[in-house]
Design goal:
Helices cover 31% and strands 28% of the residues. It is α/β, with parallel strands linked by helices. The structure holds magnesium ion (MG).
């Protein structure tokens, strides 16, 4: 038995409101059409694929359609015209044809194989899902209104999907009926008209048809990486500044009363610097010195909390937002216990996370080395960032507007 798949992608499908036909929209980083074609090429029972395309795609076919196992054909006015065009391009020797709607990209090899196997036995079979909801048939009520005419026995109701598989002579007869003017929304309807029994094979709930933006969002969620559809990344940062007389001590954007402050080009906020570096590290987007060089007079006396806010916005443009941060500040003096909550709240505000998503811990260095002698303050930071499913632009919108230092 030689099996050819016809992928019907000839329609324009502009109900999604996009500038490109729906079958070329991206799903999980690949065009919807590519998902469908690759699913059939991956099914062991399928020998060859005929992709029926709109004229502009046919004129410049993408690389994933350029294979000696794929033949291209021009789409027609109606779906049945496209299938007729595909059937005319089926390789000689094909004994069974399986028709699939390109707008069902999540079809899997098991579903293809059980549909083909059933059709090989008896001539025709389609994937369908039994109705789960109670099914009502309507009739016109008041103008513009509908009322229930009757409740149909749910056990007998099935919702047709594709793949739909036919012995080639059955599909040829169905296509002939279509040419004679019989309208049908699928090939099975034509086979029924030809008097051929069409078997129902258990479809798949994942095998959804992408028609509206909501369908595309559901499909994105189905193909998103595991872990709630998010990608997590982690980054660490470290900084140290010397304590000198005549400067304010700023830690995490909070002015801490002390007789000395940290030396530096900006406000020398060692806590913000460590956290900013951690954020940049998590996004693999460089380091603080690259983004805010201390050789640039623009950053003299800069408010480091504003720089942290700016880097949060930068990371958002890459599709990520902070989840939580944990900091350790190493200072012999002043004692920071009374300031920890204010510092954590200040950092949480800049990151755009809840206050309880930032932890600030204070340590001394037990009198050891320069930090221990009270000559410097150091900070370590670790931060987790997440990329939500399909999220770059959304995260960017939600992020705080960039603030210039
Ligand atoms: Mg620094």
């Amino acid at each position: 038995m030689s099996v050819t798949a016809i992928i019907a992608a000839g329609g324009r499908g502009r109900r999604l409101g996009a500038a490109v036909p729906k079958q070329l929209l991206q799903l999980g980083g690949r065009p919807i059409l590519q998902w469908s074609v690759e699913a059939f090429l991956a099914a062991r029972c399928v020998d060859h694929v005929v992709a029926v395309l709109p004229p502009d795609v046919l004129a410049a076919p993408p690389a994933y359609l350029q294979s000696d196992r794929v033949t291209l054909a021009a789409g027609g006015e109606r779906r049945q015209d496209s299938v007729a065009s595909g059937l005319a391009a089926v390789p000689a020797g094909t004994s069974l044809v399986v028709v699939h709607d390109a707008a069902r990209p999540l079809v899997d090899a098991a579903l293809i194989e059980r549909t083909v196997a059933a059709a090989a036995e008896t001539g025709a079979a389609i994937a369908a899902l039994p109705a789960r909801d109670t099914v009502k048939q309507s009739e016109p009520g008041a103008p513009g209104d509908k009322v229930i005419a009757r409740t149909l026995p749910r056990e007998s109701i099935h919702l047709a999907q594709t793949p739909q598989a036919f012995r080639i002579e059955v599909l040829e007869e169905a296509v002939r009926l279509g040419r004679e003017g019989i309208e049908a929304t699928d090939e099975a309807a034509l086979a029924e008209r030809a008097g051929v029994p069409v078997r129902l094979v258990e479809g798949s709930a994942r095998n959804i048809k992408i028609t509206t933006p909501d369908d595309l969002a559901i499909a994105e969620a189905l193909v998103a990486p595991k872990g709630g559809g998010t990608t997590l990344r982690i980054g660490t940062g470290y900084d140290l500044h010397r304590l000198v007389e005549g400067r304010r001590l700023v830690l995490g954007g909070v002015v801490v009363p002390f007789d000395r402050g940290l030396a530096g080009h900006s406000d020398a906020d060692v806590v913000c610097h460590a956290l900013t570096d951690a954020l940049l590290g998590a996004a693999a987007a460089g380091d603080i010195g690259q983004h805010f060089p201390d050789t640039d007079p623009k950053w003299a006396g800069a408010d480091s909390l504003a720089l942290l806010r700016e880097v949060t916005a930068l990371v958002a443009t890459l599709g990520y937002r902070p989840v939580n941060a944990d900091l350790t500040v190493i200072a012999e003096r002043p004692k920071l216990g009374a300031h920890r909550e204010a510092i954590a709240a200040s950092l949480a505000g800049a990151l755009g996370v809840p206050a309880d998503a930032v932890s600030v811990k204070a340590k001394t260095n037990e009198g050891m080395d320069a930090t221990g002698r009270g000559e410097a303050i150091a900070a370590h930071a670790v931060v987790l960032i997440e990329r939500a499913a399909g999220g770059g632009q959304r995260a960017a919108r939600e992020a705080a507007a960039p603030v210039r230092g």
